[in-house]
Every structure is written in C-alpha cells, then in structure tokens.
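Structure ticket #2291
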Amino acid sequence: MIRFLTDENFNNDIVSGGRQRVPDAEFTRVQDTELAGKPDTLVLEWAAHHDFIVLSHDVNTMRGDFYDRMKAGLPVPGLFLIHGNYPIGAAIEELELIVLASEAADWIGEIRYLPL
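Resolution: structure written out below.
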C-alpha cells in the first residue's frame, strides 16, 4: 500500500477525491497528526521515518528542504510536487495511476512533479 502525507497547504479536494477513488492508498493530512504547524523539515523527517510519500503544492521550500536532507545523508521520503493550479481531477487520476503502477519503495528518495 502506498501512503501519502499531504502538507498543510495541500488541496483537501484532492485528498477527498483520492480517498474515494484510490481505496488502496492511505491519505493522511499533516494537520491530522502531531505535525500540524511544524516546519517542512520535520514533515519530511516524519514521512521518511513512517514510510509516507509527501504530497505538496510548495514547489520552492519543500523541494529545497528535500535536497538539504539528501545532501546531509538523511533519509528522504518520496516527494510529489503538484502546482496549485493543476486540475483537481487530473491530480487524482495521476495519483491513482501511481498507486496502480508502482510500489511505495519505488519512490524513496525521488522527487517528482505532477503530471509525470
């Protein structure tokens, strides 16, 4: 099962649609965990430790924090960056394809932009 952790600014319509359309995946929102209000560095650390792929619209700072962790030799989760203006339905379809065609381990240490 692929587990996604969405950062605080992530579109909740994508989360809701993903939960409905992709029942074989887990979607957890940062604000529903002890990470609420914490910096991206801690979100990435938590995701790596708990085997989650991070979903974010924050293409600038989240990407930078990801590369900083990588350069420091720290574990990094998979990270999918989705521009905020990307259509909701298309984002859900992309996530569904990712879940159907891959495994969580395929994305460890990978950073990708949707659409793939």
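Closing remark: The longest helix spans residues 88-101.
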